[in-house]
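#lab-general

N.A. 3:47 PM
ok so I finally got the sequence cleaned up, no stray characters, all 319 residues accounted for. can someone with queue access submit it? mine expired

B.Y. 3:52 PM
send it over

N.A. 3:53 PM
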Amino acid sequence: MSDLAIAANGLRKSYGDKTVLDGIDLAVPEGTIFSLLGPNGAGKTTAVKILSTLVTPDAGDLYVAGHNLATRPQAVRASIGVTGQFSAVDGLITGEENMLLLADLHRLSKHEGRRVTAELLERFDLVEAAKKPASTYSGGMKRRLDIAMTLVGSPRIIFLDEPTTGLDPRSRHTMWQIIRELVTDGVTVFLTTQYLEEADQLADRIAVLNDGKIAAEGTAEELKRLIPGGHVRLRFTDPAAYRSAVLALGEVTRDEESLSLQIPSDGSQRELRAVLDRLDAAGIEADELTVHTPDLDDVFFALTGGGTRIPHQTQENAR
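B.Y. 4:20 PM
back already:
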């Protein structure tokens, strides 16, 4: 497990007769972004609280930063940082004072604390606001300050529990860039989010949690391939070319009104090339080619009992 930042085997947690985590396994390589998705109440936050030593599990062999969670919780705490769904910023003091307070808690010397604070305030574009009460900060600024405070102790692993909840799109994209930069610096990020696009954009691997169990795990592309509905759509302006394509391609779904054809496909380059080769062999040229692939919304709804949604993510290629 030397190359794993987080390893969990058989993680279980119940509250009364409610089983929240039912024997889940997790393996998060160092220097990656791992995203845990699931509907509200699926147990995402409980998993974060257990792995960050805030809640005791009922069962499981758990290692974080190479330390056994049960026997070396203090070593785990020294290696991690946690940013929850709600800001931990004290609004009554300034951003700089929030940072210095964390430096004191990490027992940094006064000189080192001021140095780290100054570097992080600059890194997170908070220098101009540093002397202002944190209560005057926007939501995006508070979240940036939250993560800056988390980094005071130079953690190897950061748990981000829905870090962009309530942020506007611009602030959310700023946070995404910050998270990417953290991983570039070698930090491992364990991310829970309610925004599927966020996991799609950021995560190296994604696990979907449902009814206390991992319903599926893989890269975003691997998960999308689990869901049917991908297809290639060809549109023609020449009725003769349309009819010729029907004959050349065989089993297709036709739309006579729009002169378009739909061919089942997983969106891979190999399948796309096969369609184009068959058209080329027949001397046919489509006026428009569109590849439709299921997105993470479709995966999420299918795996968590919501049914498969109509795929809407497209990549268009003119031919």
